[in-house]
Description:
257 residues; 2 strands; globular; 2% strand; mainly alpha; single chain; two-stranded antiparallel sheet
Amino acid sequence: MGPVPAFIALLPWQVALWGLAYFATLYFGFAALTLLVTGALRGLGIGRVLDRRPLRAQQRRREIGEALLSILVFGVGILLPWWLLRAGWASVRSDASLLRILVEIGVLLLWNEAHFYAHHRLLHTRWAFPRFHIQHHRSHVTTPFSTYAFHPVEAALLGSVPLLPMLAWSFSWQALFALPILSLAINSIGHANYDAFPARGGRSWLTAGRRHHLHHACFRGNYGFFSPLLDRLCGTALADDAADVVLKRAGADRHAA
């Protein structure tokens, strides 16, 4: 029995348990890997820490606690695409060529970028921000553990990314499986509070971490995921020095204290 029929044949509680284990492994695995890589880069003198303000008291503990709730939402949420497959509303290819898999991964990443930008803008509206998204922005200085530290409603919105593509196209299971892996890898880089390419401008795809650092420091702008394109097209891109005033004020406050 191949991977797709085997997945469809699982019982609901088995699907949810598999989803919980999958997302928990991704979250803690990429957090540890990101800390290891950025620590190694610092030791080699490559790149720089973006925001040197101290973390808030108990920040990592809070982030992990909120992330566990998000993992629960993501894990149980696997039941929805599983149900689409089981009901025949969607289908998955098991015999895709390598070229098709790579193209589909590219398409899903582009869709993820558009999906994230749209929902991120929605979460920054006057109605949604204080109700849902403010929870994620309690991490003024981000860490790799910030990636899943958000409100369950936000987790549900972001976790819905594969649903429309699955209804529109029969993707390979490899591409669908790769999407959350690549997404969390990029998300971990974005929340690492580290710039491995300081010589690159903010428009480079290699400076996603710097762009997202600016978003958390300024509480606005840079709503994209890994690409600067949509922010540039929609007029929401922040300048590289957008957070300078905030960081200088924070430094002055620390010295005054």
